[in-house]
């Protein structure tokens, strides 16, 4: 995975997430949209340059005064926490069998 910030303003940003698919991008988008500080978030699979592959570009627009980079960091921490919680529950379920 390679991440490139394509554009960044006061309340919006666009990032390229090279090497990822809908699987990760849908989780990021959905979690962003659950945050009250986010006005909108979506991604688009774009063909960049001469590449035959499509790469996801994530767009985030925040409420006025909110910083998209800080919100994205918070959202990533939330996703990691959700994965940890699932791993713990899965481990517990396996130990009962």
UniProtKB/TrEMBL annotation:
Keywords: Cytoplasm, DNA-directed RNA polymerase, Nucleotidyltransferase, Transcription, Transferase
Main location: cytoplasm
EC code(s) of this entry: 2.7.7.6
Role of this protein: DNA-dependent RNA polymerase (RNAP) catalyzes the transcription of DNA into RNA using the four ribonucleoside triphosphates as substrates.
Gene3D superfamilies reported in the protein's UniProt record: RNA polymerase, RBP11-like subunit
Reactions it catalyzes: RNA(n) + a ribonucleoside 5'-triphosphate = RNA(n+1) + diphosphate
Protein name: DNA-directed RNA polymerase subunit Rpo11
GO cellular component: cytoplasm; DNA-directed RNA polymerase complex
Assembly and binders: Part of the RNA polymerase complex.
Gene that this sequence comes from: rpo11
All copies of domain DNA-directed RNA polymerase RBP11-like dimerisation, residue ranges: 13-88
InterPro entries: RBP11-like, RBP11-like_dimer, Rpo11-like
Subcellular location(s) per record: Cytoplasm
Upper classification of the organism: Archaea, Methanobacteriati, Methanobacteriota, Stenosarchaea group, Methanomicrobia
Single biological process term from Gene Ontology: DNA-templated transcription
Family that this chain belongs to: Belongs to the archaeal Rpo11/eukaryotic RPB11/RPC19 RNA polymerase subunit family.
An example molecular function term from Gene Ontology annotations: DNA-directed RNA polymerase activity
Keyword Cytoplasm: yes
């Amino acid at each position: 995975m390679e991440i490139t910030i394509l554009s960044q303003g006061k309340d919006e940003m666009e990032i390229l997430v090279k090497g990822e698919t809908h699987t990760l991008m849908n989780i990021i988008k959905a979690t962003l949209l659950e945050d009250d500080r986010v006005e909108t978030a979506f991604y688009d699979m774009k063909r960049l340059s001469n590449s035959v592959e499509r790469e996801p570009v994530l767009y985030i627009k925040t409420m006025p005064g909110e910083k998209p980079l800080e919100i994205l960091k918070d959202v990533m921490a939330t996703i990691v926490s959700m994965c940890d919680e699932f791993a713990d529950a899965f481990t517990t379920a396996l130990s009962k069998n």
